[in-house]
Design goal:
By secondary structure, the chain is mainly alpha-helical. The chain contains nine helices and no strands.
Length: 205
């Protein structure tokens, strides 16, 4: 008999903590099997959580952003379940170092959960809204990917994906609106500061 723990009707942070506390291997395949359709949003949180920190990454998180973009494309084409190559499915995502990061991330999630409540729930878990979610994640991932290295400008686009994913999990339209605003602001800053930098270099040469 399959002893896999199914997420209960509790807060997302409690569900994640419950999964982390099981004896099974903490692989991507295990996460997808446990959380099913919620896996897209959870993976976006785990993948873009580090770029969302206010720290210059110097391009070290580009692989995470590429994977997030590929998963976003799956949503856009209408997939309801995450598909991952075999070598990715077996990847451990909750080792010692990852657990420290996830623990820190969960503290922030719990704070947000205390402020959140279901709002505009009709917008979530529909075919069109899932595809729109994918488009926004793709845009945020691209914004983080193309941010100049060591500039810290990848923070806002990545943060927008993280907030948007939490909005989907919590079914909170207000958080979704805030996430879109953060993303638009981040991309606008990249374009503005990038244009200024190119203009300044043009004056030098």
């Amino acid at each position: 008999m399959d002893q896999r723990t199914e997420p209960s009707a509790t807060k997302f942070s409690d569900q994640l903590e419950e999964w982390l506390g099981t004896d099974e291997d903490k692989t991507l395949e295990s996460l997808v099997a446990t959380f099913k359709e919620k896996s897209f949003a959870i993976l976006f949180i785990l993948l873009l959580g580090l770029p969302a920190l206010p720290l210059p990454t110097g391009g070290a998180t580009h692989v995470m952003e590429i994977i997030a973009a590929l998963l976003a494309l799956e949503l856009i084409v209408g997939r309801r379940a995450v598909w991952l190559p075999k070598r990715w499915r077996d990847r451990e995502i909750a080792g010692v170092r990852q657990r420290r990061f996830i623990t820190s991330l969960m503290r922030g999630i719990r704070r947000l959960e205390r402020l959140s409540r279901p709002r505009l729930r009709f917008l979530f878990n529909r075919r069109f809204s899932n595809r729109f979610f994918g488009v926004l994640v793709l845009a945020g991932s691209a914004g983080a990917f193309f941010a100049p290295p060591f500039s810290g400008l990848d923070t806002l686009p990545a943060l927008s994906v993280l907030l948007l994913s939490l909005a989907v999990l919590l079914e909170d339209g207000l958080i979704a609106g805030a996430a879109i605003l953060v993303g638009v602001t981040g991309v606008a800053l990249e374009i503005t500061l990038g244009s200024l930098a190119i203009h300044s270099l043009g004056k030098l040469f």
